[in-house]
TrEMBL record:
Keywords: Hydrolase, Lipid degradation, Lipid metabolism, Secreted, Signal. Its main location: secreted. It comes from Rosa chinensis. This is Putative triacylglycerol lipase. Coiled coil: none annotated. The lineage of its organism: Eukaryota, Viridiplantae, Streptophyta, Embryophyta, Tracheophyta. The keyword Signal applies. Its EC number is 3.1.1.3. It holds the Pfam family Lipase_GDSL.
Length: 186
């Protein structure tokens, strides 16, 4: 067996789909790049302006994520049953991130001072009106105090918490086993 094939057969793969993936690939129809960018900016503007509670995330986007995640959670046991020799796990990053926000916002724990605004921002209430880029983006002084790096992605500090929960978490975070159990089962 070729070394590359042997390595791939023992590798751990992660497939992650986030909010910008939904917007760019599932919500926006196949359109020209300029029109796609315009639609994305209008969508971002809509979400920035139409949030009922300025301290919370968009309800519509959360409903989309929860619907998708519910179906994915059901799919994982089916994949494990139908694809022998492969172990799939479902990681509920959306709920973990919501839990981090809730823990920080209501209990003041975890060290985040900013759960809504992005560390790297251009415009908008939370920095989500225009995606972060080289210019004219502004970057926060202390990234460890921000939950989000940009409008779509958790900061390194958030990702550390997320990774810890995926490594050692219980079935509400990752199922049917956490990453440490998955590695031990291999």
């Amino acid at each position: 067996m070729e070394p590359a094939i042997k390595l791939l057969r023992s590798a751990l793969f992660s497939v992650t789909i986030g909010s910008n993936d939904f917007i760019n690939n599932y919500l926006a129809p196949v359109i020209s790049e300029a029109e796609r960018k315009l639609r994305l900016q209008i969508t971002d503007l809509f979400w920035e302006v139409n949030q009922a509670d300025p301290e919370s995330c968009s309800e519509f986007s959360n409903q989309l994520a929860q619907s998708f995640n519910g179906k994915l959670r059901i799919l994982v046991p089916e994949l494990n049953k139908n694809l022998p020799g492969v172990n799939f796990v479902y990681a509920d990053i959306h709920s973990i991130v919501e839990d981090i926000i809730e823990t920080t916002y209501h209990m003041g724990r975890l060290g985040f001072e900013n759960t809504n605004p992005a560390c790297c921002r251009v415009a908008g209430r939370y920095g989500g009106l225009i995606p972060c880029g080289p210019q004219p983006s502004k970057v926060c002084v202390d990234r460890s105090k921000y939950m989000f790096w940009d409008p779509y992605h958790p900061s390194d500090a958030s990702n550390t918490i997320i990774a810890r929960r995926l490594l050692y978490g219980n079935s509400s975070d990752i199922s049917p086993m956490n990453v440490l159990q998955l590695l031990q089962a291999s």
